[in-house]
What does this fold into?
Amino acid sequence: MINSLNFFCGKEIYGCRFLGTRLNMNPYTFSLCHEAQAGDRILGNIEDLTPERYYEALSKLVKANMNEEAPCHKCDKGEKYIYTFAPINYVTVCTSEYCNSSCVYCEGHFGQKDAGYNPIPYLEAFHQENLFAKNCYFDWGGGEPTLNPWFNTTVEWLSNRGYWQRVNTNAILYSRETELALIQGNAEVRISIDSGSEDCFRFMKGHTGYDRVWKHVQEYCRVSDRVYIKYNVCNYNSDLEEIDLFLQKCKECGVKNLIIDAEVNSYQPLKNAGPFYFTSKEFEAVHYFEKTAREKGFQVEISGYAFSVRAEYDKNGNIALPKKYFDNLDYEICSHGIMVQTFPSIRYMIERILKQKEFPVAVWGARDMGKRCIQILRNYDISVDNVIDNNQELENSFIYDVKVKSAKSYFLDHQNSQIILAGRRWKEMLKEVNYFQYNNRGLYYVPECQYYNWDKNGENDDN
It folds into this structure.
């Protein structure tokens, strides 16, 4: 199959320079790239992954990219260039979507608790055919990779063959095989902690493993300097005192390298109504973070994941923090300062509701998510006052014996309610709350995946 790719060498195609040098091992599929603009180039089911199948699909894509209507035209990384064949030099290993952390900003983990597959047979086949470059880089991620029962043996397999790998982990579990790979000098570890105090950690990460995680950070740092601790700044962790505590903990644990990032949905060029906010306070916080961290002797990297949307660069060509703040708050929705409170898990929202149990609770959303929400609340003996939904056909009907009202009629009849935005169109819901200037006791939002993970995986706060 490589010979068929050699046929295209020296010919002009449209694509990016990484075409054919990347393999993504996803939970259920394998693909070429993860660029959102062009769509993930899914080539097949993961159980069908072979070198032949991979290069057959790649050959078809390269051929298609010789035409004016090239599939890669949709991506802004695409360009015309002379194609040359190169082996794979970057592999993402994402065997499961499940995670034992509930980071407040994460929407994507719908995975089953015990899901995952053994990557070694697939990797072995490519390795035997010399289809991985000698400097091939293996990037662990997806859900939490250390939960895969084959994770440690795969880390060892890669390390013994001299391949470089990065482990993106929440560090709830400690991996001795990762430690050995760090000692051998062909691995690095990246951990998002996003907090300094135990209270903030519990809210940002959705579990109580503060001491355990920092202990594991210290153990990794004891054997290697290639440990990177990440701080995703948003409106829940941008107090300067919180940043100071984080830097203090990093010093205590021997951390050398820090990554400053922003919650990606809040730092964007589009108007933002939430559920996270990047205001002038957060802007000042990231600059304070960088300045203070460098003064304390840390190596500081600015993440392009969020900050590339308005990219600025330093004298060495590395991405830098923006010098000027831009206000992207959607004032059509937030003109009265009414903003949503996001929680990392159902349990954290329940805690807030019970602290104000004298105030009624309404669930906004009559579809599946709203129904799930009502069922879960009843497990905590929390009664729902009304379901809010603007579908006229549903008004005055009942869902689980709870009456459905329109937003307008509910706001006219009630004051000081706790309202759960349990629907995908929560921005429109928030806009109506703002329009009526409703005097509520709280607008609550939990990532959608938490409603569906609640009973199939259990509550993972203490994992």
